[in-house]
Amino acid sequence: MSNPIVIVGAGLSGLRAASLLSELGIKCRVLEARDRVGGRVLSTPHPNRSDAGKFDLGPTWFWPQHEKTMANLVKELNLETFDQYTKGAMLSERYHNALPERYVLPENSLERSVRFTGGVQSLIEAIENTIPPGIVELETRVTAIRLDKTGAITLDVEHANGSKEEVYASAVILALPPRIVASHIEFSPSLPKNLMTDLVNKPTWMAGQAKAVAIYDHPFWRESGLSGFAASWVGPLQEIHDASPNTGSGALFGFFGMPAKMRRELGEDEILKLVIDQLVRLFGPDANKVSSILYKDWSGDFETAVEEDSNPLRDFPVYGKPPQGGVWENKIIFAGTETNSQYGGHLEGALQSAEQAVFEITNLKNKTLLR
């Protein structure tokens, strides 16, 4: 393997794969189209207060009692975490023009979930710090992957300044959502029909969703015995949680019930007005004293979503490893949370898929050495 392993995508899977390969002394390059690392992990600070903490607009938590890969990595990287706040009553908003109902859930009815101090981005940064400098290349878009008759792999790459490059690889780890692979990258020869069908039929986790985070000076709802957890059949948010960091400021975040098309038609300003109106209905007039509000619609993110992802998911997708790639077998390896069967859609799935990809690379390397 004289050429490096090329990893396409610098999200959690891609960075973890690069970290593990580097640890094993295997040459690699990470090519990322965005101008940042993290992929769907996005932790954003308060626009005017750097001391207010960071707020997750992508994944938010994990479950250490079930997700051992993540729990072990957090311990290995010495990352600081804290339990998701769940003390107090939840609210249920069932009907228009009706007061929200208040419920005290039985003790231990909610499974313990854990958040990162500094947001999930702190995990991304810690992994990135384990990778030697120069391996991760931002604003570097892979447009095509070619395989010649001798088995040599070439990637066509475009840089932010418009320049183009050919990158040679001994194997490629595609650490991207399957639909993004199918939509954004041209393969020569083409991927087998059954593989392409599998990629197109795997919805990108979170791609049809949007998140809003309302930030306050302090978590005022806790003073009223509320946990910040709410469910709504009215909207626009259908599920709300306490998103307060452990810095003293308060925050509520919610997932939207309305489809992506409706969000686009309404526009961000109108949507955020509806969000604040809903929070006031649920949590009282203090919810109007918002310090800042953050919003991320993943359905409009070119590096995350394709048009098919605008359709709301009705059931949890069936994820898992794509089928063998015909002539591309052992040349391209898929990673990412959508390729993990047990924890698809979770950070845990992203980590396990990276470990599996590196395991396959080391097997290929050992076979090559034995020839």
From TrEMBL:
<feature type="domain" description="Amine oxidase">
    <location>
        <begin position="12"/>
        <end position="89"/>
    </location>
</feature>
<dbReference type="Pfam" id="PF01593">
    <property type="entry name" value="Amino_oxidase"/>
</dbReference>
<dbReference type="InterPro" id="IPR036188">
    <property type="entry name" value="FAD/NAD-bd_sf"/>
</dbReference>
<comment type="similarity">
    <text>Belongs to the flavin monoamine oxidase family.</text>
</comment>
<dbReference type="InterPro" id="IPR050703">
    <property type="entry name" value="Flavin_MAO"/>
</dbReference>
<protein>
    <submittedName>
        <fullName>Monoamine oxidase</fullName>
    </submittedName>
</protein>
<dbReference type="GO" id="GO:0016491">
    <property type="term" value="F:oxidoreductase activity"/>
</dbReference>
<feature type="domain" description="Amine oxidase">
    <location>
        <begin position="111"/>
        <end position="358"/>
    </location>
</feature>
<dbReference type="InterPro" id="IPR002937">
    <property type="entry name" value="Amino_oxidase"/>
</dbReference>
